[in-house]
Amino acid sequence: MAHGPMFGGRGAADDEEILGKAYDARIMSRLLGYLAPFTRQIALSFALMTIVALANLAVPYLWKTAIDVAIAQKNLSILSWVILAYVGVGLVNWAASFGQIYTMSWIGQSIVYNVRTQLFEHLQRLSFRYYDTHEVGRIMSRLLSDVGVLNELLTGGIIGIASDLFTLIGIVAIMLSMNPRLSLLAFAVIPILALATEFWRRRAREAFRLVRRTIARVNASLQENISGVRVVQSFGREDLNQQRFDEVNRSHLDANLYAARLSAVFFPAVDLIGAVATALIIWYGGTQVLGQQLTAGALVAFVLYVGRFFEPIRDLSQRYNTMQSAMAAGERIFEMVDTPVEIADAPDAIDLPTIRGEVRFEDVSFGYDGETMVLKDINLTVRPGEMVAFVGATGAGKTSMINLIGRFYDVSRGRITVDGHDLRDIQMHSLRRQLGIVLQDPFLFSGSIKENIRYGRLTATDEEIVAAAQSAQAHEFVTALPQGYDTLVGERGVKLSQGQRQLISFARAILADPRLLILDEATASIDTQTEQRIQQALQYLLRGDRQSHPTNAQDGGANKSGCDCRSG
After folding, report:
1. 336: closest CA among 119, 24, 32?
2. Given a cut of 80, is residue 135 above it in pLDDT?
3. Tell me: the pLDDT tens digits for 254-311?
């Protein structure tokens, strides 16, 4: 019996590094490249950040002025000006904070848009081989979670670190200028704070790594259970799956509680250390005030500066994990971006003119791993207007031949030609726009039936869509639906039966009016009577010797691994 969250399944991120180094110059230089188009906005944000920091630094000084000048001299006019200055500083702080936060949020969302667009564009160009070896959940994690982590770094992390450092340096400079002895007394707790921070950092790294790994397992368990709910219910395994999910969910709960305990210990500890430092300042500073060596206003201002001194230190500790997560996320994103496009147009590739439909396999061998050949020394000619069936046992390579015709993979040896043109010498879009492929397990997009059929030819009219559906024998069942062609099919067409999805897929291919129609066991889920009518529609498509139809059917010449496959 499996003891994992599912049937031996693992989360998409189980074997990945969740937290990287806090700073990686190579990764950071590439990440900063995304900021290059926003130089002016970043400069504005840094300027606003400086204003915010200066406004915060000015507040304790206003307190000093109010106590030592206005109150000590009982001067109401000066006190009024101090109060107005205090309100003015608050308004400036608010306006600058608003501008900085909005500007960086705008930059961050723009970067998220650019990165996701870049990744999506790249993913659309990657070959089937990439998707054979990479889980969908892991790819989605790159586009969603990892890009979100980068947004957090580029919008809040970098500016936040700069703001904290600027504030910290400003506070230290002001404290030293006000009273060096009191400053040294406040700084005496820094070694203790450093030890506490290092203790927390090491344990927090492992704690947050565990949290991310356990949530990955929870997501994987949810995805598998929801996708396989029909199998779960048909075997009556709800209780078993509930128990397994509870184990995974509880491990995530435990990981979160451990991380919460660490935070609950560390951050109050920082406050406690700050309180101790403040107490020392009040004790020593109070004696100086009593001895008239220090004014009361200066002591109050100093205490306020000490309180502000520990805030950026605490913030920097929190941003450490953000940096670690961002470095790891950046590594994974750039790994995807740097994945080479295996199937690409040659520099001198030609635009394929309208084809007659002759397909040739010339000594073609192919293996998915480059070593074990699924197809070996295949020679085959499909002439214009012919309908050829590839038949063989499961794993014999029928679907592989279909994938090679569309150049979704490149042959290992030999070549495939269309009308005498090697597939590697022509532009892929000019080939694929003349192909129509109907798969055994058709994919429908979320949307209406009409939109899914129109995907075959985006400029098609409603009348042409109906005509294609009639040819595919889909019109009758579509019009019987309450919303007809406007019926929403749901995710992957879940609201339609397998056979209905197949007919919609046929209609989509017919609407495209392909020069070469490829069927991969496309009638497996259709009843015999409907299949016969579809065959009649295919005969219509064949009229005028316009198209060739390699089909993965149940009759015709044999095709087995290691055997030649020729037109019969």
Report:
1. 119
2. no
3. 988 988 888 888 888 888 888 888 888 889 889 988 988 888 988 898 888 888 887 8
| Token output for 212 | 């991310």
Within 10 angstroms of residue 354's Cβ, the number of other Cβ atoms is 10
Using DSSP bridges, classify how beta strands 359-366 and 375-382 pair: parallel, antiparallel or unpaired. antiparallel
Q: Could you give the CA distance from residue 174 to residue 180 in angstroms, rounded to a whole number?
A: 10
Residues 60 and 40: beta-carbon distance below 8 Å: no
The tokens describing 376, both together, are 């070996």
For 134, residues 6+ apart whose C-beta sits below 8 A from its C-beta are none
State the burial class of residue 202 (Cβ atoms within 10 Å of its Cβ: 0-12, 13-18, 19+).
exposed
Torsion, Cα 241 243 246 250, to 10 degrees, reads: -140
CA dist 563 and 29 (Å) reads 53
Question: Pairing mode, if any, of strands 375-382 and 387-391?
Answer: unpaired
Per-residue pLDDT band at 524 (split at 50, 70, 90): low
Q: Could you give the C-alpha distances from 17 to 208, 260, 317, 326, 328, in angstroms and in order?
A: 12, 21, 21, 11, 7
Residue 13: phi and psi, rounded to 5, are -110, 15
Nearest-5° angle of CA 512, CA 518, CA 520?
125
The DSSP element (H or E) to which 366 belongs, if any, is strand 359-366
One-letter amino acid identity for 169? I
**Triad 109, 135, 435: Cα angle to 5°:** 90
* Closest to 223 (Cα-Cα) out of 115, 310, 293, 137: 137
State how far the Cα of 307 lies from the Cα of 469, in Å rounded to an integer. Answer: 73
Which pLDDT does position 564 carry in this prediction?
27
Q: Assess contact for 146 and 333: CB atoms under 8 A.
A: yes
Tokens of 514: 């392909």
Q: Read out DSSP for 373-437?
A: -SEEEEEEEE-TT-EEEEE-STTSSHHHHHHHHTTSS--SEEEEEETTEEGGGB-HHHHHTTEEE
Tell me the per-residue pLDDT of 407-465, one tens digit each, with 9 for 90 and over.
888 888 999 999 889 999 999 888 888 888 887 778 898 889 999 999 988 899 999 99
Would you say the C-alpha torsion 309, 311, 314, 315 has a positive or negative sign? negative
Please say whether the beta carbons of 179 and 306 come within 8 A.
Answer: no
